[in-house]
Design brief:
The complex is a heterotrimer of chains A (169), B (656) and C (686).
Chain A: E1 6-13, E2 16-21, E3 25-30, E4 44-50, E5 53-59, H1 60-63, E6 76-82, E7 85-91, E8 93-100, E9 105-106, H2 115-119, E10 120-126, E11 129-134, H3 136-141, H4 150-165
Parallel strand pairs in A: 2-11, 5-7
Antiparallel strand pairs in A: 1-2, 1-8, 3-6, 4-5, 6-7, 9-10, 10-11
Chain B: H1 3-36, H2 45-65, H3 68-85, H4 93-114, H5 123-133, H6 149-152, E1 173-179, H7 183-187, H8 192-202, E2 203-212, E3 218-226, H9 230-233, E4 241-245, H10 276-303, H11 309-337, E5 338-340, H12 342-359, E6 363-368, E7 373-375, H13 376-397, H14 401-406, E8 413-422, E9 425-432, H15 439-448, H16 460-467, H17 480-483, H18 488-497, E10 501-507, E11 511-519, E12 524-532, E13 535-540, E14 546-550, E15 555-557, E16 563-567, E17 570-576, H19 577-580, E18 591-598, E19 601-607, E20 609-617, E21 631-636, E22 642-646, H20 648-653
Parallel strand pairs in B: 6-8, 13-22, 17-19
Antiparallel strand pairs in B: 1-3, 1-4, 2-3, 5-7, 8-9, 9-11, 10-11, 12-13, 12-20, 14-18, 15-16, 16-17, 18-19, 21-22
Helix pairs in contact in B: 1-2, 1-4, 1-12, 2-3, 3-4, 3-5, 4-5, 10-11, 12-13, 13-18
Chain C: H1 3-202, H2 207-224, H3 228-350, H4 355-479, H5 484-507, H6 512-685
Helix pairs in contact in C: 1-4, 1-6, 2-5, 2-6, 3-4, 3-5, 4-5
Classes of the chains: A alpha+beta (169), B alpha+beta (656), C mainly alpha (686).
Chain lengths: 169, 656, 686
């Protein structure tokens, strides 16, 4: 038997599709009842009760240095586990459960900032869709004070991919 | 291995660890007693027996779980004890040391097995033990030494209770035999056991018990039911056996007078061991019940207008009954989780003993309040911090003997470990009579590290804050006692995570005292629900001394913008929760002040409104992202919205 | 001393002793015998005593028995005596009753007698009165006959009177009839004149002057017509004035005809104007109706627009509802998606075992996505629909506003039209009024003409009638010979009337007032006439009734006489009977007296009897009392006897006891003697 197709949860932030390993995901929820925690880092929206557990809810948009967006019907809280920690990630939407064949996954391209390598496990292109596979552990382990300029990193990644597809004449 | 068998095995392992833990605890206690008896001629055999039984059980169980290292250690220690019992060996310091090392190694082996970590090196212990047992032939254990009693003592009859009820078959009579062993008889091969065998041949031993006679002689009583007549055992008179027909005593009324102090039971109490996770599950369910009841009460309140008064009253009564029952259920389950602090204190004895030997210093560990009970989880979490504080007291606190003598102190340093219950809290104190903390040095260091303003004074809370700063150390190099495991920062963090507080008192030349205040239980607590800046918070009731209503005009603002409130003829510094939490106060005319204390320091915490009082189920906040000073956890009132629980002591203790 | 000696010595002493004993024994014996003897005597005495006692007892017993018997008898006597007393009492009571009855009877008899005497006396007085009546009745009869005769003569006189009154009445009636016919004509005339007058009044004739004058004339006529003679005179005047009236009537008829013609021409003109106006009104009405129809159409249009706008809005609301449902569906779809994702996560965690579940979760997610897509499509449609609806609502609102304005303007137009209409209608109405007024004028003119004509005609008839009247008046004058004075007065009055009438004709240029005066005068005349006729009639009636009364009186008198005669006869009979009755009464009185006497005697006798009975009772009571005394005494005797008996038996018992003790004494004595004898015998043996 060849290497199994790893299942992922796909989610969107600012029209970019990301993936997290399904096994890292404890469960997914709609965003309800977030209690703000005073003096917590800005990207921590607050705490939520998830299966009797008090966990932080992180706004990935804020974490990635993007503008906040009001919650809507599609906003999701992805409860992920990272080591001993359980954290909720707020994303624009998450509607897909997808098995990505290993051969479709490639390492993240080298970028100028080198940031993508830090928190991207790899990228996959499926049916012409670009999927960025997020390294949750890495994202969570980065010190709260450190800013993640993901938007810029994404732009870099996309540029890099574009350059690959259309090599300069 | 099939999953099912895995589960069975896992459960068995759990049992194994639990049982080993019990026996190791008993062993530690007994070894310390034994140590005090070293060099003496007579050794209390029962002490040795008990140690032997514990070891024997551990050996057997370890064999069953395939923990050869433990089995080997236990076997060696058993041999030493056997030799001691047979007076083939004197109770020397070396022997005791070897046993203590063996026990500690055994403990480590079992602990690492439990945490699935690499096993420690048992070779040193084996070597030391073998150094004692070496010349001894490794005799197979004789039958009478096989401590079958080890299993029997699992559920022994309390000494005070009489013989059990028994039934006589047709033609049978009950006889009470008494046998007093004597050397002469023993020489003839007549021992308790041979008597027992004889008696078993003629009938059934219903009950057997030793009786201590005047002069320290021990007489054994056997209650035997038999169809043989007394002619059968008439010849046994020569063998020191007396008998009489036995009539069961009339059932004594339950209250034959209160037993003043229960004789400390040497055997384990009549207990059922329950996995803590099951108690946790139960507590969780009770927590859910508490929330459901709170919701029921809310619903009842909103229904009040639509329900006739009579029914309303009835519903209220039911609700109140439910509350009472829930409370007693909760307390019952809480008691299940409660363990005496004595267990943890015993470990400290061990630690202190080791340190004392290592440092060649006489240390007296004064314990008090061992019977104080506290939540099992709290005990577990507090073990390392306490160890740290005790080690700190030894390594940083106590001066070397000559220095002490020079200062007119006794050479023997004293470390006091006290525990007491105060309301819903438990207070643990760790005090040494050592040199105290040199403020100036700490201040200097702190200023050098930018932790303290050049001008700021260094009072006790500030001192504690600095000492608890991660990475702060005044020692050039960490020695064994203080450098290992956790630091003071972890101690403080752990205490605060548990919803408690840590305080420090120190005086140069006189000593240092750490005071830890912990909640009795973590699970459920009565709390005030308050609102600040439109957000609700819960404040555990035990930490609030008083609630007062105040108006802005009652507040005096000092030069440094500190706010004060006149309180019982004194001034009460105010802490504005809204300001601390970056919220906007939303009170009309009057606000409320929760008076709370942290050690000797009292302060008022300003909130907008008091919404009510509720039983809350405390849920810990474990993620570092949301661990904020002053917030002890979160709870939920039944609407799915988390509520943050405030720890007033931390708010008061920490500087702005 | 030897024994022997001693023995001897004692023997002597003994013997001495024995001798003494013996003597004593003897003494005892003797005494005993004595006792025995005495005892025997006592016993004998006792026996005798007992016997005597026994006897006494038996006698006492006997006495007691006889006493008891006596007592029984006495008691029975007492009982029977008591019975006797009670029966005597009863008797006495009955006698007393009887006595009372007798006394009552006597009293009654006495009363009876007195009554009979009174009756008798009254009968006698009646008889006397009857006799007197008889006498007076006879006198009455005689005088009655006289009265009857006188009444008859009066009756005859009255009859004659009656005839003459009748004649007078007939003449008056005739006159009255003629006057009435004049009055009738005058009425007709008056009616015509009234009509004329009222018509001419409208055209502005100066009636008031005439009226004033007529009033003064009226007073004159009144005076005139107060007597028949005045009337006669006036009738001639009437005749003349009637002629004048005729002439005047002719003249007025001519002028009336002229008036009529001119009125006709006015009426024609008015009719023409009316027709034109009506035409205009019709046209205006038609245009108004048309306008109204168009307005109504406009209003209907607006209504339907409002309805459709409401419907569109409703539709908008529905669309919104659908929108919210779509939202809900969306939420469900999202939740389903979420659930399926969670299911997928769990399934993946379960590994191979979760594979099937994962597939299902996938399917569910696909379905949810499809549902989400479908709802998104629906949402888009709904949005488009909502926009369309918004537009529709907007345009509907616009057209509604325009329609509103149009209808408001149309309503203004209708209001203007309405004003025109009402103006035309008012004009038309006025013209109509004019036409109608001229019409009325016309008919009034015609009425005037015809009234004038009628007046003329009536005037002629009046003239004729007046002539007849005159003739009748002449006849009246002639026929009432006995009422000459009155006739003259009438004639005079008639003359005055004529004169007055002439004055009227002279004074008044037209006839109206005059006619009224005439009518009034004739009316009054008629009234007077009828009063006269009534008076005559009354007179006639009273005369007739007097005659009738007289006749009746006469008849009554006759009857009275007859009755009186019969009365006299009866009274005679009564007198006779009364005489007999008086006789009988005297006899009865005598008999009653007799009876009274006897009754008295009876009463007395009974009283005596009663007294005797009372005495008897007293006696019996005495007896009874005495017997009671006897009985008591007897009882006392009896008691005494019993006591005696008791005493006796006591005595006997004492005797018996005595006898017994005596016997014992005897026995003792015997014993004693025997002992004594035994002693003696023993002594002997010594």
């Amino acid at each position: 038997m060849t290497e199994r197709q790893a299942p992922f949860i796909l989610f969107q932030i600012a029209d970019t599709t990301y993936a997290v390993h399904s096994e890292a995901v404890q469960q997914m929820e709609m965003v309800e009842h977030i209690t703000p925690v005073p003096n917590a880092p800005p990207f921590v929206e607050g705490v939520v009760l998830s299966r009797g557990q008090v966990i932080p809810a992180i706004n990935l948009r804020t974490r990635f240095g993007l503008e906040k967006k009001p919650y809507d019907l599609r906003t999701r809280l992805i409860v992920v586990r990272s080591g001993e920690r359980t954290v909720g990630l707020i994303v624009d939407s998450a509607r897909e459960f997808l098995a990505i064949p290993p051969e479709a996954i490639q390492p993240p391209p080298d970028t100028a900032s080198g940031m993508s390598e830090r928190y991207l496990e790899g990228i996959a292109i499926l049916d012409k869709r670009l999927i960025l596979i997020l390294n949750v552990d890495a994202v969570l382990s980065i010190a709260p004070s450190e800013e993640l300029h993901l938007a810029e990193a994404i732009a870099e990644v996309k540029d890099a991919l574009l350059a690959e597809e259309n090599p300069p004449a | 291995m099939t999953p099912a068998s895995t589960n069975v095995f896992t459960e068995f392992l759990d049992d194994y660890f639990a049982e080993c833990d019990e026996h190791l605890t008993a062993m530690r206690r007994n070894l310390l007693t034994l140590e005090s008896l070293a060099q003496q001629e007579r050794v209390d055999v029962s002490l040795l027996d008990e140690l032997f039984r514990s070891l024997h059980t551990i050996k057997g169980l370890s064999g069953m779980v395939g923990l050869a290292e433990a089995e080997q250690l236990a076997h060696l220690m058993e041999s030493i004890l056997r030799a001691l019992r047979r007076h083939q060996l004197d109770l020397s310091d070396e022997a005791v040391d070897a046993l203590i090392l063996g026990t500690r190694t055994l403990e480590q082996v079992i602990a690492t097995r439990q945490t699935r970590q690499p096993l420690p090196d048992i070779a040193p212990a084996i070597k030391q033990l073998e150094a004692i047992t070496g010349p001894l032939p490794d005799l197979p254990p004789s039958p009478e030494e096989t401590p079958t009693a080890a299993t029997e003592t699992r559920l022994p009859l309390p000494r005070e209770s009489g013989p059990p009820a028994f039934t006589l078959r047709e033609g049978e009579r009950a006889w009470l035999f008494q046998f007093t062993p004597a050397r002469a008889l023993a020489e003839r091969g007549i021992s308790v056991d041979s008597i027992r065998t004889r008696l078993q041949e003629i009938g059934q031993i219903v009950h057997a018990a030793p009786r201590i006679q005047d002069g320290g002689k021990v007489t054994f009583e056997f209650l035997v039911t038999t169809d043989a007549d007394d002619s059968t055992f008439t010849p046994w008179q020569e063998d020191g056996l007396t008998w009489a027909p036995y009539e069961p005593p009339p059932p004594t009324p339950a209250a034959t007078g209160l037993k003043a102090v229960p004789t400390p039971s040497i055997g384990p109490p009549n207990v059922v061991r329950v996995d803590l996770t099951r108690v946790d599950d139960l507590m969780q369910t009770i927590g859910d019940l508490v929330i459901s009841r709170a919701r029921l009460e809310d619903t009842l309140t909103s229904l009040a207008r639509h329900v006739p008064a009579a029914q309303q009253r009835q519903l209220q009564e039911i609700n109140q009954a439910l509350e009472r029952q829930l409370r007693s259920l909760r307390e019952g389950v809480m008691r299940l989780r409660m363990v005496p602090l004595g267990e943890i204190f015993e470990r400290m004895k061990f630690v202190v003993r080791d340190l004392a030997r290592e440092r060649r210093q006489e240390i007296n560990l004064a314990l008090s309040g061992q019977e104080t009970e506290i939540d099992k989880l709290v005990v577990e979490r507090m073990l390392d911090p306490l160890l740290h504080l005790v080690r700190n007291a030894v390594s940083h606190g106590l001066e070397p003997a000559e220095e002490r003598l020079a200062q007119g102190k006794p050479a023997e340093g004293t470390i006091a470990l006290r525990a007491a219950t105060a309301g819903d809290s438990v207070i643990i104190e760790i005090e040494d009579d050592g040199r105290g903390i040199d403020r100036e040095r700490v201040a200097e260091q702190a200023r050098a590290q930018g932790l303290l303003d050049a001008e700021a004074p260094l009072d006790d809370p500030t001192l504690l804050d600095i000492l608890c700063t991660t990475g702060f150390s005044t020692r050039r190099q960490a020695d064994r006692a203080s450098g290992r495991g956790v630091g003071l920062d972890v101690v403080k963090k752990t205490v605060e995570e548990l919803g408690g507080s840590l305080a420090l008192d120190t005086e140069v030349g006189r000593g240092t005292r750490f005071t830890i205040r912990l909640p009795l239980t973590l699970a459920i607590v009565d709390a005030l629900i308050v609102s600040v800046g439109g957000q609700r918070f819960a404040v555990p009731l035990p930490s609030v001394r008083e609630v007062i209503e105040a108006r802005p005009k009652d507040v005096t603002v000092l030069g440094n913008e500190d706010e004060m409130l006149s309180y019982h003829g004194d001034v009460l510094p105010l802490i504005r929760l809204a300001a601390r939490f970056g919220l906007q106060e939303q009170f009309e005319r009057a606000f409320y002040v929760l008076v709370a204390a942290h050690g000797a320091k009292a302060a008022g915490i300003v909130v907008d409104r008091i919404l009510g009082q509720r039983e809350i189920v405390v849920r810990a906040i474990s993620d570092p992202l949301i661990q904020v000073p002053g917030i002890a956890g979160a709870t939920e009132l039944g609407d799915g919205r988390p509520l943050l629980i405030i720890n007033p002591a931390v708010l008061i203790g920490s500087r702005r | 001393m030897s024994i022997f000696t001693r023995s001897r010595k004692s023997r002597n002493a003994l013997e001495q002793e024995i001798a003494r004993v013996r003597s004593e024994t003897d003494q005892i014996n003797r005494t005993t015998d004595e006792i025995t003897r005495i005892t025997a005597q006592i016993t004998a005495g006792l026996e005798t005593q007992i016997n005597a006692v026994e006897e006494t007892v038996s006698q006492a017993n006997e006495m007691t028995a006889s006493l008891k018997e006596t007592a029984g008898q006495a008691e029975s006597i007492a009982g029977s005596t008591e019975e006797l007393v009670s029966s005597i009492n009863e008797l006495a009571a009955s006698i007393e009753q009887l006595t009372a009855n007798a006394t009552d009877l006597a009293a009654a008899v006495n009363e009876n007698a007195a009554a009979i005497q009174e009756t008798s006396a009254s009968i006698q007085s009646v008889t006397a009165t009857a006799e007197e009546i008889a006498a007076s009745a006879e006198q009455t009869a005689t005088s009655m006959n006289e009265i009857a005769a006188s009444i008859k003569s009066v009756s005859d006189d009255t009859d004659a009177l009656n005839v003459s009154v009748d004649e007078t009445a007939a003449s008056v009636e005739e006159l009255t009839q003629s006057v009435q016919s004049v009055a009738e004509h005058a009425d007709d005339l008056s009616t015509a004149a009234d009509q004329t007058s009222s018509a001419i009044n409208e055209m502005g004739a100066s009636i008031e002057e005439v009226t004033a004058m007529a009033e003064s004339l009226a007073s004159a006529v009144e005076q005139v017509s107060s007597s028949i003679e005045e009337m006669a005179r006036s009738v001639a005047g009437v005749a003349q004035s009637a002629e004048t009236i005729s002439e005047a009537a002719e003249g007025s008829a001519t002028s009336a005809a002229q008036l009529d013609r001119s009125i006709h021409s006015v009426a024609d003109l008015a009719r023409q104007a009316d027709e034109v106006t009506k035409g205009i009104a019709r046209d205006a009405q038609e245009s108004s109706a048309t306008t109204r129809q168009s307005i109504e159409g406009l209003l209907r249009l607006r209504d339907s627009m409002t309805r459709s706008a409401t419907m569109i809005r409703e539709m908008g609301k529905r669309a919104e509802e659908i929108g919210s449902i779509v939202d809900t569906i969306n939420l469900i779809a999202e939740r389903t998606n979420l659930l399926s994702l969670n299911a997928s996560i769990e399934a993946a965690r379960a590994g191979e075992a979760g594979r099937g579940f994962a597939v299902v979760a996938e399917e569910i997610r696909n379905l949810a996505d499809r549902a989400a897509q479908a709802t998104a499509d629906i949402a888009a449609i709904i949005r488009a629909l909502q926009e369309a609806i918004q537009e529709a609502v907007a345009s509907a609102n616009d057209s509604l506003r325009i329609a509103d304005e149009g209808s408001r303007m149309a309503e203004d137009g209708v209001a203007g039209l309405d004003k025109i209409m009402s103006g035309i209608e008012k004009t038309s109405e006025l013209v109509s009024h004019i036409a109608r007024a001229t019409d009325e004028q016309l008919s009034a003119g015609q009425n005037v003409v015809s009234a004038v004509n009628t007046t003329a005609r009536q005037a002629k008839q009046v003239t004729v009638a007046t002539a007849e009247q005159t003739r009748a008046a002449q006849e009246i004058v002639q026929s009432v010979a006995q009422m000459r004075k009155i006739s003259q007065q009438v004639t005079q009055a008639m003359n005055e009337q004529s004169r007055a009438a002439r004055d009227i004709i002279k004074a008044a240029q037209n006839t109206t007032g005059l006619a009224a005066q005439v009518r009034q005068a004739t009316n009054e005349q008629t009234k007077a006439m009828s009063q006269i006729a009534q008076a005559v009639e009354a007179m006639r009636r009273s005369t007739a009734s007097t005659a009738r009364a007289l006749e009746q009186q006469s008849t009554a008198v006759d009857q009275i006489s007859q009755e009186t005669e019969r009365l006299a006869r009866l009274i005679a009979n009564v007198s006779k009977a009364m005489g007999e009755q008086a006789n009988a009464a005297t006899q009865i009185t005598a008999a009653t007296e007799n009876m009274r006497r006897q009754t008295d005697q009876l009463a007395r006798a009974i009283q005596e009897q009663s007294r005797a009975a009372k005495e008897m009772t007293t006696a019996a009571q005495n007896i009874s009392k005495q017997i009671a005394l006897i009985t008591r005494a007897n009882r006392e005797h009896s008691t005494a006897a019993a006591e005696i008996l008791t005493a006796m038996s006591d005595i006997r018992r004492a005797n018996d006891r005595t006898a017994l003790s005596i016997e014992e004494t005897q026995r003792a004595t015997v014993n004693l003697r025997e002992r004594a004898q035994a002693i003696a015998a023993a002594l002997d043996r010594l």
